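Design a sequence for this backbone.
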């Protein structure tokens, strides 16, 4: 799984001809590193909304190919549909999903806009967070008059495109490329069939709120401002749009919300606020429904939120956090909540062809694979596995301490240590396969052709890049294993005394991981041509190893004194 993930949601101006839609989406599915998650055609709108995710550069490549195919196949001069539009690819927003900031996403959006303008010769406007001109932040302003007004607008200096030609292309029209926050479509279920009451709750919470009335009662005379416009009383939740409706399929009313920025109003905050406002009106929330997908972090944050309310440790597995979130939000009330379908990162993994990962093996299978004649997994993966085991032991002691009878007032203290340990063992688990992948990249680089000077240069660069990666991975194992030793040390000193030996074993495993990983750093050092870079790595590695030795001694002295 890529460290950085972005989502791209291109809207193509074709909703009926499935053969055209498939030719466009085939471009995405044929791009390595990009995953096609959803294709939603609409006949009435004559528009198809496509969702793809992946590493930023891969997503950009896929988007360029798809937009190019759309420009070839869709003729805007013959297009009709209910939805506003002005191009064969009407809009193409990028959305940060994980490990990437909005600022970085904006740069990728502008890079995409530049490629579409220069490589494909399309007329491109940048909007929302990617806007280069403030007036163009609002998509409605950029697309005003739609396709029919585009030819005349392009003659105005004010509407010179951000990228690409300023001459009207009757076939492809124009495309708006943007960067926006992740939008979650989220419905909360009520124990009522009344749309009016559901609407009242929706107006209580949505940012827009409701029209202010003279006597404060719905349906009464509206308060007007000096310009004759209605005055609105805002709701309690920022970045939330909402309405109440009745769902005949389930026989209940819902609050249907769009959470337009889950960093401002997360799902769990929206849910709790609806619960509060519903209760004020004598109505009970019975569960909720996620429409589409949402990022893993949003689900984990919800799980942690509800555990925190219970005064329980947050340093538990992602699987447990997801379970807590689903049960607390009632996401499985209407139908089963399937993480592999509803969580973006898991949906990506589920769509990948069967890849044999070490971390997915049984423990015995991992041992047998290591003992086989294959060159990988080797010492690097084993070192990372030892570190993960050490971190897991430190986390276990922290979790046990947070639940120890009589220590209830210290749960948050131990929860913090458990979260630190969990972060370590989660990363070390990923590094098990990263180490093997790095070794395979070296082997692949040595297999590259070298029949010309250019090929020799490219091959040498590939070998050097792969060798550096094969050093950086075990170096990260060293850093992370040292960090988890701090957890073991703390748990040996003031954690649950009944588990002090576990903290000691954790420290021993982590120290061994540091030493083993350093051996892997050193064995590849002779092949690195950048000697200054390598010298810095070795110096830092020696320092980490010495710190690990010192921590091991401290932990064992503490453990022995308590046994």
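Sequence:
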């Amino acid at each position: 799984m890529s460290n950085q993930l972005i989502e791209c949601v291109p809207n193509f101006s074709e909703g009926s001809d499935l053969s055209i839609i498939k030719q466009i989406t085939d471009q995405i599915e044929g791009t390595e590193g990009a995953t096609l998650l959803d294709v939603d055609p609409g006949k009435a709108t004559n528009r198809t909304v496509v969702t793809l995710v992946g590493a930023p550069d891969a997503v950009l490549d896929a988007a360029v190919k798809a937009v190019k195919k759309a420009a070839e196949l869709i003729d805007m001069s013959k297009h009709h549909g209910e939805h506003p539009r002005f191009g064969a690819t009407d809009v193409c927003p990028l959305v940060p999903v994980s490990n990437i900031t909005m600022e970085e996403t904006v740069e990728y959006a502008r890079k995409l806009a530049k490629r579409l303008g220069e490589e494909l010769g399309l007329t491109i406007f940048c909007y929302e967070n990617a806007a280069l001109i403030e007036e163009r932040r609002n998509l409605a302003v950029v697309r005003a008059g739609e396709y029919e007004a585009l030819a005349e607008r392009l003659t105005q200096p004010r509407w010179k495109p951000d990228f690409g030609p300023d001459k009207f292309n009757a076939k492809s029209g124009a495309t708006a490329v943007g960067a926006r926050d992740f939008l979650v479509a989220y419905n909360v279920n009520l124990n009522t069939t009344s749309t009016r009451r559901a609407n009242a709750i929706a107006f209580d919470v949505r940012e827009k709120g409701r029209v202010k009335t003279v006597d404060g009662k719905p349906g009464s005379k509206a308060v007007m401002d000096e310009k004759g416009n209605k005055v609105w009383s805002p709701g309690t939740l920022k970045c939330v749009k909402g309405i109440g409706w009745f769902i005949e399929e389930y026989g209940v009313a819902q609050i249907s919300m769009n959470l337009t920025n889950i960093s401002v109003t997360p799902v769990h905050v929206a849910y709790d606020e609806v619960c509060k406002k519903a209760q004020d009106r004598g109505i009970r929330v019975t569960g909720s429904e996620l429409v589409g997908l949402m990022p893993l972090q949003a689900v984990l944050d919800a799980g942690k939120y509800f555990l925190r309310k219970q005064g329980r440790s947050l340093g538990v597995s992602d699987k447990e956090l997801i379970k807590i979130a689903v049960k607390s939000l009632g996401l499985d009330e209407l139908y089963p909540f399937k993480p592999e379908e509803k969580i973006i990162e898991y949906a990506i993994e589920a769509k990948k062809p069967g890849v044999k990962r070490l971390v997915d093996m049984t423990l015995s299978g991992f041992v047998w694979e290591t003992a086989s004649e294959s060159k990988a997994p080797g010492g690097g993966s084993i070192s990372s596995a030892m570190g993960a085991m050490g971190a897991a032991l430190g986390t276990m002691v922290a979790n046990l301490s947070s639940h120890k009878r009589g220590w209830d007032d210290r749960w948050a203290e131990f929860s913090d240590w458990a979260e630190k340990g969990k972060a370590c063992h989660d990363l070390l688990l990923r590094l098990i396969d990263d180490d093997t992948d790095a070794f395979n990249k070296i082997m692949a680089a040595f297999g590259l052709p070298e029949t010309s000077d250019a090929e020799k240069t490219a091959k040498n660069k590939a070998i050097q890049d792969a060798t550096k990666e094969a050093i950086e991975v075990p170096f990260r194992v060293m850093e992370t294993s040292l960090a988890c030793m701090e957890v073991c040390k703390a748990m040996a000193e003031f954690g649950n005394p009944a588990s002090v030996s576990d903290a000691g074993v954790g420290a021993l495993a982590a120290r061994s991981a540091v030493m083993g990983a350093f051996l892997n750093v050193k064995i590849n050092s002779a092949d690195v041509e950048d000697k200054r870079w390598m010298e810095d790595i070795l110096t830092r590695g020696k320092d980490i190893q010495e710190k690990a030795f010192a921590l091991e001694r401290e932990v064992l002295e503490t453990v022995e004194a308590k046994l």
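The longest strand covers residues 89-98.
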